[in-house]
Amino acid sequence: MKEATMTARDLALRLCLLMSAAIPATAQSPDSKALLDASLENASDIDRPAWIRHAFKRHVTRQRLDEEGDVEWRQTMLFQVTPTAGGLAEELLEIDGRAPTTAEVDKRRKRGLFAKHYEQTAGVVLENPLGKDLPLLPLIYEQEHEYVGMDAVDGIPCHRIRFDARPEPSGEPIEVKLRYAMKGELCISLEGQRLMHVDIQTVREVKSVVRIKAVRIHFEARPQGDVWLPTFFEMKSDVKAIGMKFRTHNIYSYSDFRLPGG
Hints:
Blueprint: H1 32-51, E1 55-65, E2 71-84, E3 87-95, H2 102-111, H3 113-120, E4 125-127, E5 133-135, H4 137-141, E6 146-153, E7 156-163, H5 174-180, E8 182-189, E9 195-202, E10 206-207, E11 210-224, E12 227-241, E13 244-258
Antiparallel strand pairs: 1-2, 1-13, 2-3, 4-5, 6-7, 7-8, 8-9, 9-11, 10-11, 11-12, 12-13
């Protein structure tokens, strides 16, 4: 099973709604598209390049679910990722609550999954369980956004924006049908205009050759010195294709950021 990856997440985008009551939008409300465009530009031009200049810990939880949504298989891993002259060094520190074997450390080092995921962020795509890249930006940006008001997440002032699902279009590819089937909320920081919180999910099944029964994506980023870096990404999906079912719930978190020598 392939791991789910993130875009301007594993550039900039999940969510934990820890918000107080929002201030109603007014006629002077900021333009949602302008805020979103600025957040994408800042993530691409400032934060993404800064990400791999930092050393950090990467926590991975991969789960496979049964028909009832209960966990039938689970794996947890903790990595130390460190920038080097040749790119990135990834060391497996822990797997399923125990120290890894030498063979497990070597295997994960050779696979270098974070480095591969980081390269995907340039294309702003998610690698889904079907092996086909799923464009993430349209799910976030190509929606009919509504400015809700100013709010705060973890004490950080932000603009809150939301969008609702729309009627299913006919004769469109599954990527478009999926976009129309999603609703979500986004938070963009007042200072620096960073996409700091995203929570999007399907409201109905999307049918094609592939049947997407449900998808939920949650992303968070927080300031680390002068830049904003991802701290949490979650993807939960229930997909069926060619008689095969994929029910997964993967969680990635990032912590202990530091600049080498810092």
